[in-house]
Amino acid sequence: QVQLVESGGGLVQPGGSLTLSCKASGFTFMDYTMNWYRQAPGTGRLLVARISGTGSHTDYADSVNGRFTISRDNAKNTMTLEMRSLKPEDTAVYYCNSLFRNSWGQGTQVTVSS
Hints:
Helix content is 0%, strand content 50%. By secondary structure, the chain is mainly beta. The strands form 2 sheets. Strands 2, 4, 5, 6, 9, 10 and 11 form a 7-stranded mixed β-sheet that branches. Strands 1-3-8-7 form a 4-stranded antiparallel β-sheet, with no helix packed on it. Strand 5 and strand 6 (58-60) form a beta hairpin.
């Protein structure tokens, strides 16, 4: 059974930092590109960042490029999103996604507010 479990969300002030994690199980983690998406209230789910199976290739949405860093540890079946210089517009539910059967986690809330 495929499972993706996000953690690390919370409330942070503008300009602050937060690190999200996604623990994967039920498939060969290193074989699949992994993605972080986010969904703000009243909007669709948007791709934030993605990382190739080996971790050698990453892509970012323009809105987060230079502030967010995606990484993975294939030995631990874990993907991480380091978020810095957070802005109120980064507020959303963040989801972990695998291209294996287009699997999704349950999401973790990130709120950026003073």
